[in-house]
Design a protein that fits this description.
Layout (H helix, E strand, L loop, with lengths): L2 H13 L2 E7 L8 E6 L7 H16 L3 E6 L4 H14 L3 E4 L5 H11 L4 E4 L8 E5 L1 H18 L9 E4 L6 H16 L4 E5 L5 H14 L6 E4 L2 H13 L13 H8 L6 E3 L2 H16 L2 E5 L1 E2 L5 E5 L2 E3 L4 H6 L5 H4 L5 H6 L4
Helix pairs in contact: 1-10, 2-10, 3-4, 5-6, 7-8
Protein backbone atom coordinates (compact mmCIF):
# COMPACT_ATOMS: atom_id res chain seq x y z
CA UNK A 1 0.00 0.00 0.00
CA UNK A 2 1.34 3.42 -0.91
CA UNK A 3 1.95 5.94 1.84
CA UNK A 4 -0.47 8.46 0.36
CA UNK A 5 -3.25 5.90 0.08
CA UNK A 6 -2.88 4.57 3.62
CA UNK A 7 -2.75 7.98 5.28
CA UNK A 8 -5.41 9.62 3.12
CA UNK A 9 -7.89 6.83 3.79
CA UNK A 10 -7.62 7.36 7.53
CA UNK A 11 -7.39 11.13 7.25
CA UNK A 12 -10.63 11.37 5.34
CA UNK A 13 -12.43 9.46 8.09
CA UNK A 14 -11.04 11.81 10.71
CA UNK A 15 -11.27 15.16 9.01
CA UNK A 16 -14.67 14.61 7.41
CA UNK A 17 -16.03 14.52 10.96
CA UNK A 18 -15.08 18.18 11.39
CA UNK A 19 -17.46 20.72 9.89
CA UNK A 20 -16.85 24.45 10.22
CA UNK A 21 -19.86 26.70 10.57
CA UNK A 22 -17.86 29.74 9.52
CA UNK A 23 -19.27 31.77 12.39
CA UNK A 24 -16.93 34.03 14.33
CA UNK A 25 -16.20 33.01 17.92
CA UNK A 26 -16.94 35.66 20.46
CA UNK A 27 -14.49 36.66 23.18
CA UNK A 28 -11.39 34.70 24.03
CA UNK A 29 -7.71 35.24 23.37
CA UNK A 30 -6.46 36.86 20.18
CA UNK A 31 -3.06 35.14 20.48
CA UNK A 32 -1.78 33.32 17.42
CA UNK A 33 0.06 30.79 19.60
CA UNK A 34 -1.08 27.22 19.96
CA UNK A 35 0.07 25.82 23.31
CA UNK A 36 0.50 22.05 23.45
CA UNK A 37 1.35 19.81 26.42
CA UNK A 38 2.19 16.15 25.87
CA UNK A 39 2.13 13.81 28.89
CA UNK A 40 5.24 11.62 28.86
CA UNK A 41 7.46 9.28 26.90
CA UNK A 42 6.84 6.22 29.10
CA UNK A 43 3.30 5.25 28.12
CA UNK A 44 4.26 5.46 24.44
CA UNK A 45 7.35 6.64 22.53
CA UNK A 46 5.07 8.11 19.86
CA UNK A 47 4.49 11.39 21.71
CA UNK A 48 7.99 12.66 20.96
CA UNK A 49 8.76 10.70 17.80
CA UNK A 50 5.48 11.30 15.99
CA UNK A 51 2.96 13.60 17.69
CA UNK A 52 5.33 16.46 18.47
CA UNK A 53 6.77 16.88 14.96
CA UNK A 54 3.36 16.43 13.32
CA UNK A 55 1.67 19.02 15.55
CA UNK A 56 4.53 21.51 15.21
CA UNK A 57 4.72 21.15 11.44
CA UNK A 58 0.96 21.37 10.93
CA UNK A 59 0.48 24.46 13.08
CA UNK A 60 3.48 26.27 11.59
CA UNK A 61 2.37 25.41 8.05
CA UNK A 62 -0.96 27.07 8.86
CA UNK A 63 0.89 30.22 9.92
CA UNK A 64 0.65 29.89 13.70
CA UNK A 65 3.28 29.63 16.41
CA UNK A 66 3.47 26.27 18.14
CA UNK A 67 4.70 25.88 21.72
CA UNK A 68 4.89 22.10 22.23
CA UNK A 69 6.27 20.74 25.50
CA UNK A 70 6.31 17.39 27.31
CA UNK A 71 5.59 16.97 31.04
CA UNK A 72 7.75 13.80 31.19
CA UNK A 73 5.25 12.00 33.43
CA UNK A 74 5.31 14.71 36.12
CA UNK A 75 1.95 16.30 36.99
CA UNK A 76 3.65 19.20 38.81
CA UNK A 77 5.74 19.89 35.72
CA UNK A 78 2.55 19.72 33.63
CA UNK A 79 1.04 22.53 35.73
CA UNK A 80 4.24 24.59 35.57
CA UNK A 81 4.45 24.30 31.79
CA UNK A 82 0.82 25.40 31.50
CA UNK A 83 1.37 28.47 33.69
CA UNK A 84 4.41 29.46 31.64
CA UNK A 85 2.54 29.03 28.37
CA UNK A 86 -0.50 30.96 29.59
CA UNK A 87 1.71 33.80 30.83
CA UNK A 88 3.12 34.15 27.31
CA UNK A 89 -0.34 33.94 25.74
CA UNK A 90 -2.21 31.11 24.04
CA UNK A 91 -4.95 31.26 21.44
CA UNK A 92 -5.80 27.60 21.97
CA UNK A 93 -4.50 24.82 24.19
CA UNK A 94 -4.05 21.23 23.02
CA UNK A 95 -3.74 19.10 26.15
CA UNK A 96 -2.83 15.43 26.29
CA UNK A 97 -3.86 14.64 29.85
CA UNK A 98 -1.58 13.21 32.53
CA UNK A 99 -3.43 11.73 35.51
CA UNK A 100 -6.01 14.51 35.54
CA UNK A 101 -3.49 17.39 35.37
CA UNK A 102 -5.19 18.82 32.28
CA UNK A 103 -8.43 19.52 34.19
CA UNK A 104 -7.01 22.42 36.20
CA UNK A 105 -5.20 23.76 33.15
CA UNK A 106 -8.41 23.77 31.10
CA UNK A 107 -10.18 25.62 33.92
CA UNK A 108 -7.51 28.34 33.85
CA UNK A 109 -7.72 28.52 30.08
CA UNK A 110 -11.50 28.80 30.15
CA UNK A 111 -11.32 31.72 32.62
CA UNK A 112 -8.97 33.45 30.18
CA UNK A 113 -11.33 32.79 27.27
CA UNK A 114 -9.00 30.23 25.71
CA UNK A 115 -10.54 27.05 24.22
CA UNK A 116 -8.96 23.72 25.11
CA UNK A 117 -8.73 20.56 23.04
CA UNK A 118 -8.37 17.20 24.80
CA UNK A 119 -5.86 15.42 22.59
CA UNK A 120 -5.64 11.63 22.56
CA UNK A 121 -6.98 11.32 26.14
CA UNK A 122 -10.28 12.77 27.40
CA UNK A 123 -10.63 14.88 30.53
CA UNK A 124 -13.39 16.87 32.21
CA UNK A 125 -13.79 20.46 31.07
CA UNK A 126 -12.32 20.23 27.58
CA UNK A 127 -14.16 22.08 24.82
CA UNK A 128 -13.33 19.42 22.22
CA UNK A 129 -11.86 15.92 22.14
CA UNK A 130 -9.68 14.63 19.30
CA UNK A 131 -8.55 11.01 19.40
CA UNK A 132 -8.83 7.66 17.77
CA UNK A 133 -12.07 5.76 18.21
CA UNK A 134 -10.90 4.25 21.48
CA UNK A 135 -13.67 1.72 21.94
CA UNK A 136 -12.97 0.77 18.35
CA UNK A 137 -9.31 0.25 19.29
CA UNK A 138 -10.37 -2.08 22.12
CA UNK A 139 -12.76 -3.91 19.82
CA UNK A 140 -9.95 -4.57 17.34
CA UNK A 141 -7.77 -5.86 20.16
CA UNK A 142 -10.55 -8.13 21.38
CA UNK A 143 -11.10 -9.45 17.86
CA UNK A 144 -7.39 -10.16 17.48
CA UNK A 145 -7.58 -12.35 20.60
CA UNK A 146 -10.58 -14.24 19.22
CA UNK A 147 -8.80 -14.69 15.89
CA UNK A 148 -5.69 -15.93 17.69
CA UNK A 149 -7.66 -18.45 19.73
CA UNK A 150 -9.46 -19.70 16.62
CA UNK A 151 -6.16 -20.10 14.80
CA UNK A 152 -4.89 -22.49 17.48
CA UNK A 153 -8.19 -24.34 17.81
CA UNK A 154 -9.18 -22.95 21.21
CA UNK A 155 -12.82 -22.44 22.15
CA UNK A 156 -13.18 -18.83 23.26
CA UNK A 157 -15.93 -19.70 25.72
CA UNK A 158 -13.69 -22.10 27.66
CA UNK A 159 -10.32 -20.39 27.12
CA UNK A 160 -8.35 -19.02 30.06
CA UNK A 161 -7.84 -15.36 29.15
CA UNK A 162 -6.01 -12.84 31.32
CA UNK A 163 -6.83 -9.12 31.02
CA UNK A 164 -3.96 -6.60 31.34
CA UNK A 165 -5.46 -3.11 31.06
CA UNK A 166 -4.15 0.44 31.08
CA UNK A 167 -3.90 3.07 33.79
CA UNK A 168 -7.42 3.89 35.07
CA UNK A 169 -6.31 7.52 35.48
CA UNK A 170 -6.20 7.68 31.67
CA UNK A 171 -9.75 8.19 30.39
CA UNK A 172 -8.95 6.15 27.29
CA UNK A 173 -8.11 3.04 29.31
CA UNK A 174 -11.75 2.40 30.17
CA UNK A 175 -12.77 2.85 26.54
CA UNK A 176 -10.11 0.37 25.39
CA UNK A 177 -11.36 -2.05 28.04
CA UNK A 178 -15.03 -1.56 27.20
CA UNK A 179 -14.38 -2.06 23.49
CA UNK A 180 -12.37 -5.23 24.07
CA UNK A 181 -14.76 -6.70 26.63
CA UNK A 182 -17.72 -6.02 24.36
CA UNK A 183 -16.20 -8.26 21.70
CA UNK A 184 -14.75 -10.88 24.02
CA UNK A 185 -17.81 -11.31 26.22
CA UNK A 186 -20.04 -11.62 23.16
CA UNK A 187 -17.93 -14.66 22.22
CA UNK A 188 -18.34 -16.13 25.70
CA UNK A 189 -14.97 -15.14 27.12
CA UNK A 190 -14.86 -14.70 30.89
CA UNK A 191 -11.55 -13.37 32.27
CA UNK A 192 -9.57 -15.93 34.26
CA UNK A 193 -7.74 -13.02 35.90
CA UNK A 194 -7.48 -9.23 35.62
CA UNK A 195 -4.34 -7.37 36.66
CA UNK A 196 -4.29 -3.81 38.09
CA UNK A 197 -4.31 -1.29 35.24
CA UNK A 198 -1.06 0.53 34.46
CA UNK A 199 0.95 1.97 31.58
CA UNK A 200 4.18 1.01 33.31
CA UNK A 201 5.51 -2.02 31.45
CA UNK A 202 7.55 -3.32 34.39
CA UNK A 203 4.55 -3.19 36.70
CA UNK A 204 2.34 -4.82 34.08
CA UNK A 205 4.87 -7.65 33.70
CA UNK A 206 5.09 -8.24 37.43
CA UNK A 207 1.31 -8.29 37.81
CA UNK A 208 0.92 -10.67 34.88
CA UNK A 209 3.56 -13.03 36.27
CA UNK A 210 1.68 -13.14 39.56
CA UNK A 211 -1.55 -13.97 37.71
CA UNK A 212 0.25 -16.56 35.59
CA UNK A 213 1.63 -18.27 38.69
CA UNK A 214 -1.73 -18.20 40.45
CA UNK A 215 -3.32 -19.86 37.41
CA UNK A 216 -0.63 -22.52 37.39
CA UNK A 217 0.44 -21.46 33.91
CA UNK A 218 -2.98 -22.19 32.44
CA UNK A 219 -3.19 -19.15 30.19
CA UNK A 220 -4.61 -19.48 26.67
CA UNK A 221 -4.51 -15.79 25.68
CA UNK A 222 -3.82 -12.33 27.10
CA UNK A 223 -5.78 -9.22 26.20
CA UNK A 224 -3.26 -6.41 26.68
CA UNK A 225 -4.12 -2.76 26.19
CA UNK A 226 -0.88 -1.60 24.53
CA UNK A 227 2.43 -2.75 23.07
CA UNK A 228 4.55 -1.66 26.03
CA UNK A 229 2.58 -3.84 28.42
CA UNK A 230 2.42 -6.59 25.81
CA UNK A 231 6.22 -6.70 25.59
CA UNK A 232 6.37 -7.24 29.37
CA UNK A 233 3.74 -9.98 29.18
CA UNK A 234 5.57 -11.67 26.31
CA UNK A 235 8.81 -11.64 28.32
CA UNK A 236 7.06 -13.66 31.03
CA UNK A 237 5.55 -16.04 28.48
CA UNK A 238 8.97 -16.48 26.84
CA UNK A 239 10.52 -17.27 30.23
CA UNK A 240 7.95 -20.05 30.61
CA UNK A 241 8.35 -21.34 27.07
CA UNK A 242 4.81 -20.37 26.14
CA UNK A 243 3.30 -18.60 23.11
CA UNK A 244 -0.36 -17.56 23.18
CA UNK A 245 -2.45 -14.86 21.47
CA UNK A 246 -1.53 -11.42 22.84
CA UNK A 247 -3.01 -8.08 21.78
CA UNK A 248 -1.61 -4.54 21.81
CA UNK A 249 -1.70 -1.12 20.23
CA UNK A 250 0.57 1.72 19.05
CA UNK A 251 2.49 -0.16 16.32
CA UNK A 252 5.69 0.47 18.28
CA UNK A 253 8.96 -1.03 17.07
CA UNK A 254 8.84 -3.69 19.80
CA UNK A 255 5.18 -4.36 19.10
CA UNK A 256 5.71 -4.75 15.36
CA UNK A 257 8.68 -7.02 15.98
CA UNK A 258 6.61 -9.22 18.29
CA UNK A 259 3.86 -9.34 15.66
CA UNK A 260 6.37 -10.40 13.00
CA UNK A 261 7.78 -13.07 15.34
CA UNK A 262 4.30 -14.44 16.09
CA UNK A 263 4.53 -13.56 19.79
CA UNK A 264 1.86 -10.86 19.51
CA UNK A 265 -1.18 -11.61 17.38
CA UNK A 266 -1.61 -8.02 16.17
CA UNK A 267 -1.14 -4.40 17.12
CA UNK A 268 -3.59 -1.57 16.55
CA UNK A 269 -1.96 1.05 14.35
CA UNK A 270 -2.89 4.63 15.16
CA UNK A 271 -1.05 6.93 12.72
CA UNK A 272 -0.13 9.85 14.97
CA UNK A 273 0.24 12.16 12.01
CA UNK A 274 -3.44 11.63 11.16
CA UNK A 275 -4.61 12.28 14.71
CA UNK A 276 -2.35 15.34 14.82
CA UNK A 277 -3.76 16.56 11.51
CA UNK A 278 -7.28 16.40 12.93
CA UNK A 279 -6.18 18.33 16.03
CA UNK A 280 -4.38 20.93 13.90
CA UNK A 281 -7.46 21.35 11.69
CA UNK A 282 -9.56 21.99 14.77
CA UNK A 283 -7.01 24.25 16.47
CA UNK A 284 -6.53 26.38 13.36
CA UNK A 285 -10.29 26.85 13.06
CA UNK A 286 -10.41 28.06 16.67
CA UNK A 287 -7.39 30.31 16.18
CA UNK A 288 -9.12 31.88 13.19
CA UNK A 289 -12.21 32.57 15.29
CA UNK A 290 -14.46 29.94 13.77
CA UNK A 291 -16.84 27.74 15.74
CA UNK A 292 -16.09 24.13 14.79
CA UNK A 293 -18.65 21.37 15.20
CA UNK A 294 -18.06 17.62 15.39
CA UNK A 295 -20.53 14.89 14.42
CA UNK A 296 -19.75 12.70 17.47
CA UNK A 297 -19.98 13.36 21.19
CA UNK A 298 -18.67 11.78 24.36
CA UNK A 299 -21.14 10.68 27.02
CA UNK A 300 -20.78 14.04 28.77
CA UNK A 301 -21.60 15.92 25.58
CA UNK A 302 -18.07 16.97 24.63
CA UNK A 303 -17.75 17.24 20.82
CA UNK A 304 -15.59 14.31 19.70
CA UNK A 305 -13.62 14.08 16.45
CA UNK A 306 -12.75 10.40 16.10
CA UNK A 307 -9.99 8.94 13.94
CA UNK A 308 -10.22 5.39 12.59
CA UNK A 309 -7.63 2.85 13.90
CA UNK A 310 -6.14 0.01 11.84
CA UNK A 311 -5.44 -3.58 12.94
CA UNK A 312 -1.99 -4.78 11.87
CA UNK A 313 -1.08 -8.45 11.74
CA UNK A 314 2.27 -9.71 10.41
CA UNK A 315 1.26 -9.37 6.77
CA UNK A 316 0.39 -5.68 7.24
CA UNK A 317 3.54 -4.58 9.05
CA UNK A 318 4.89 -3.50 5.67
CA UNK A 319 2.05 -0.96 5.45
CA UNK A 320 3.31 0.78 8.58
CA UNK A 321 6.81 0.89 7.09
CA UNK A 322 5.52 2.20 3.76
CA UNK A 323 3.58 4.90 5.62
CA UNK A 324 6.82 6.06 7.23
CA UNK A 325 5.89 5.20 10.83
CA UNK A 326 8.51 2.46 11.17
CA UNK A 327 11.68 1.51 9.30
CA UNK A 328 12.93 -1.88 8.17
CA UNK A 329 16.32 -0.95 9.66
CA UNK A 330 14.81 -0.63 13.14
CA UNK A 331 12.51 -3.64 12.81
CA UNK A 332 14.71 -6.14 11.06
CA UNK A 333 17.36 -6.84 13.66
CA UNK A 334 19.17 -10.18 13.57
CA UNK A 335 16.46 -11.92 15.62
CA UNK A 336 13.70 -10.61 13.35
CA UNK A 337 15.45 -10.75 9.95
CA UNK A 338 13.92 -14.05 8.88
CA UNK A 339 10.43 -12.89 9.81
CA UNK A 340 10.98 -9.63 7.91
CA UNK A 341 11.99 -11.62 4.82
CA UNK A 342 8.94 -13.85 5.20
CA UNK A 343 6.53 -10.90 5.29
CA UNK A 344 8.32 -8.70 2.78
CA UNK A 345 9.50 -6.04 5.20
CA UNK A 346 12.50 -4.37 3.62
Amino acid sequence: MKKSLLISAVAVAALSALALTGCSASGGSTSKRACVILPDTQSSPRYESADRPALEAGLKAAGFEADVQNAQGDTAKYATIADQQLSKGCGVMILDDLQGAAVAVAEKAKKAGIPSIAYDRPFDGADYYVSFDNEGVGALEGQSILDGLKAVGKDAATASVVYVGGDPADGNAKMFYDGAVGVLSAAGVKPAAETPGTWDGAKAGTAFEQAYTKLGGKVDAVWVANDTNAAAVIAILDKNGKTVPVSGQDASVAGLQNVLLGKQTATVYKPAKVEAAAAVELAVALLKGDKPAANKKLADGTPFIAVTPILVGPEKVIDVVTAGDATAKDLCTAAVAAACAKYGVK
